[in-house]
Design a protein that fits this description.
Blueprint lengths: L4 E5 L3 H12 L3 E7 L5 H4 L7 E4 L11 E4 L6 H11 L6 E4 L10 H5 L3 E7 L17 E6 L1 H13 L3 E4 L5 H28 L12 H13 L8 H5 L2 H10 L2 H18 L2
Parallel strand pairs: 1-2, 1-4, 2-3, 4-5, 5-6, 7-8
Antiparallel strand pairs: 6-7
Helix pairs in contact: 9-10
The protein binds NADP nicotinamide-adenine-dinucleotide phosphate.
NADP nicotinamide-adenine-dinucleotide phosphate binds next to helix 1, strand 2 and strand 6.
Length: about 270
């Protein structure tokens, strides 16, 4: 698919980052449709020529060749039905951006004549007014109808990503893996930062002094084949130290620590 016009439904975290990146790469943003008008700080991120509207107060625009639905997962099917009713989807490509759900969620668009696919970038997209994100090297999982699938692969490549084709039946496991790798550590780092603060840990720099340790261990984990690069009491199987940690932690944090220690044992036993 050439760099055509596109519309994004769902101008949220991913929708806005994606729109900015596509514009940067030479695509033409025709319209963004949301549930309510954009906030001023969001509006400022995009060219004045882009139409912003809502389902309740739609502006007339011709449906471009590519429509990306970037709404929260529980809304996808409802928005697909709305899009099928209100836009001219015949011959268009429609993508949704959920890592969990398959292209089938866009069945209403398919019935309206579109070719549909799911298109999921394995990256974290914070509110775009906070910071930009890296697209280069981001893995993008794509599956769906042949034409939309091919368009999704091309779009990912064009943005600097590394597309791959996922079996739709694997999407729940794939998405769970992403959550285990990114969301669980996020929560645990926030908890550890509070514990460091309770010990008077350094106030300067991110993470109360945790940054060098956390970044080095994440890098080690990512480049390791298994658990060979793990350090600390768990890796040394130092039971006395682990017991001291468990005794020092709040009960709910100790429960997580214990669960991870048990998980590690099952991996050592393989
Ligand atoms: N953020 C990430 O890191 C990330 C990464 C990969 C994939 N994704 C996927 O991207 C999708 C969106 O996630 P997100 O994090 O960008 O969510 P988000 O920040 O909550 O943005 C969702 C946007 O959709 C709008 N919306 C909700 N219902 C709508 C409707 N009926 N019609 C039009 N717009 C509607 C929301 O409007 P309101 O503000 O009015 O609610 C909001 O602007 C999800 O499928 C998610 O799995 C997200």
């Amino acid at each position: 698919m050439a760099r055509t016009g596109f519309a994004v439904i769902g101008p949220g975290r991913l929708g806005l980052h994606l729109t900015s990146r596509m514009i940067e790469r030479g695509w033409t943003a025709v319209a963004l449709r949301g549930r309510r008008p954009l906030r001023a700080e969001q509006r400022r991120l995009l060219p004045a020529t882009v139409v912003f509207d809502t389902w309740d107060e739609p502006t007339a625009w011709a449906t471009p060749d590519l429509v990306v639905i970037a709404v929260p997962d529980p809304e996808i099917q409802r928005v697909a039905t709305l899009a099928a009713d209100r836009l001219d989807l015949g011959g268009r490509v429609v993508l949704h951006t959920s890592g969990l759900h398959p292209a089938e969620q866009l069945e209403a668009c398919r019935r309206a004549g579109a070719s549909v696919a799911s298109w999921h970038p394995l990256q974290t997209f914070p509110p775009p007014e906070l910071r930009t994100v890296e697209w280069n090297g981001v893995a993008v999982a794509v599956e769906g109808d042949q034409r939309a699938h091919e368009a999704g692969l091309e779009l990912a490549r064009d943005l600097g990503g590394e597309p791959w084709t996922i079996d739709p039946s694997c999407k729940p496991t794939y998405h769970a893996a992403a959550a285990v790798a990114a969301n669980l550590p996020h929560v645990l780092i926030a908890v550890a930062r509070d514990l460091m603060a309770s010990c008077g840990g350094p106030e300067e720099g991110p993470g109360r002094g945790l940054e060098p340790l956390v970044l080095a261990s994440v890098r080690s984990a990512l480049s390791a084949a298994g658990m060979e690069a793990l350090t600390g009491a768990l890796a040394r199987r130092d039971r006395a130290a682990v017991d001291a940690h468990l005794a020092a932690l709040p009960a709910e944090v100790a429960a997580v620590y214990r669960a991870v220690a048990e998980l590690l044992e099952t991996r050592h036993l393989r």
